[in-house]
Amino acid sequence: MKIAVTSQGPTLESEVDPRFARARYLIVADTETGEFHAVDNEQNLNAAHGAGVQAAQLVAGQGVEAVLTGHCGPRAFQVLTAGGIKIFNGAEGTVADAIERLKSGELTETDGADVGSHWM
Q1: Number of domains in the chain
Q2: Whole domain around residue 80: which residue ranges?
Q3: Residue 117 included in any domain
Q4: 8 Å CB contact between 59 and 73
């Protein structure tokens, strides 16, 4: 499965960023092959408005099936789910840890946003 994990750095050893929209990087990984690449999310770090929607569109453009993050706001949640992308909140530790937790069934798909708009 092709997934995106919010990250504070560009590697699998980087810590998961708890923020979806304002994560520094998005690590796009294939859970079957282990291949990954980092997507720079700098455009949304200090965006006054629309960071959630823009980050969700960036993720959707990567062709992922799921997102692993700490938290996801309502606008991002709406865009991601409209695109058929599953969201798994509560990811923590390193990106590699979060991927392993998903593969072992420890992360569950969320059915709604868990923070309000403009959560920092």
Answers
A1: 1
A2: 2-103
A3: no
A4: no
Distance (Å, whole) CA 45 – CA 23: 7
Residues 6 or more apart from 5 whose CB is under 8 A from it?
A: 16, 26, 27, 29, 67, 68, 69, 91, 95, 98, 99
pLDDT tens-digit readout, 83-102: 999 999 999 999 999 999 99
What pTM was computed for the model? 0.91
Indicate whether 108 belongs to any domain. no
Distance (Å, whole) CA 107 – CA 116: 21
